[in-house]
Design goal:
Blueprint lengths: L3 E2 L6 H11 L1 H7 L1 E5 L1 H9 L4 E6 L6 H14 L4 E4 L2 H7 L8 E6 L15 E5 L5 H14 L3 E4 L9 H7 L2 H4 L2 E3 L2 H10 L3 E5 L5 E2 L9 E5 L8 H6 L2 E4 L11 H17 L1
Parallel strand pairs: 1-4, 3-4, 6-7, 6-11, 7-8, 9-11, 9-12, 10-12
Antiparallel strand pairs: 2-5, 3-5
Amino acid sequence: MKIDTITSAQNPKIKTLLELQEKSRARRKEGLFVVEGCRELMHCLSSGYIPYSVFVCSEIISPKELESLAGAVKSGSDKCGFFDLPKHLYEKVAYRGGTEGVIAELHCKSHSLESLDLKANPLVIVLEAVEKPGNLGAVLRSADAAGADAVIVCDPLTDLYNPNLIRSSIGGIFTVPVAAASSEETISWLKERNIKIFTAQLQDSKWYYDTDMKGGTALVMGTEATGLTDVWRKAADAHIKIPMLGKLDSLNVSVSAAILLFEAVRQRNS
């Protein structure tokens, strides 16, 4: 694979790379996003994402790693550009440290509900709103660990390729099917597929471990500050809660998601 060298921060490709890292608008306009590190890039490629450009620093990445990476990228797309950056320039464009000398631009995927292909009796996480990209990233890590079939974010404007989200998910955004839709669209979609809706809330609820999660299950969570809106409370097949034995009345949404996900896993494996 041909590797071109870029030495100037004024190069148009470097300017575009920085815009994609920093601006959601640029990601939407170009239909591209940025990942850093071999692990994240390999997750992307194995999940069918198509690479557009790859920037490496040959002063950091080993020749063996570079050869392996080039082969994987070529199998993903033979039209992908490959560029070598000197260390001083790579360090200027790297979003975080310790990324093994690899930064890549890849084409975004569709994240509509119709793009989800669920198996029988799916396990789905639904987040009505996302307060922080880091929270969604942590939920995706738990969803991957629990083998969840999908994560649905009920905010169509959510930037699923935010660098903080990608970093906090350690690649979970690529390994777990994700969709973004309105609450109303999601409720209709779940009911059409006979997926039970279990809302995590304190009011009028039963303990989560007393709820049967062996069938098609959607675990729905709201924000820590305001919880779920009435549209979800009314659509629910059951309201469930986690015991809170201290003085505080809520957990971080990613912690709640992990507890509920692994209860579903326990039930399905018992």
